[in-house]
Each structure stands twice: as structure tokens, then as C-alpha cells.
Amino acid sequence: MRACRRCHILTNRNTCPYCGEPTSDHWHGYLIVLNPSESKIAEKMKIKMPGKYALKVR
Ligand SMILES: [Zn+2]
Hints:
This protein has 58 residues and is mainly β. It has one helix at residues 40-44, and strands at residues 2-4, 10-11, 23-24, 27-33, 51-57.
């Protein structure tokens, strides 16, 4: 799995399927967001859609 440097979503592609930024395989921890509008962490991370996100991406 790789993580997008900008929106932190996890994917196995080299570029993010959502924002087109290059992805990185240097990331730590992950977060599953089911309901972005009801999650404080999602709000903080500016997550708009449900999915799996890396907490930290280098
Ligand atoms: Zn992205």
C-alpha cells in the first residue's frame, strides 16, 4: 500500500486516484473513515470521503 502525500488516502497506485499527487510508501499508521462528516479526526485532516487514510506520510 502507498499513501497520497496530499490527501493521505491509501492506494496501491503510484499516483493518487483522487487528487493526482504522487504517492509514497513511507507512511505510518492508518485511519478508517466511514463517516467523514461525523468524525473529528476526518475534519482535522480535511477528509471528505470515506476510505482508508495514512496518519503520517513522508
Ligand atoms: Zn490524494
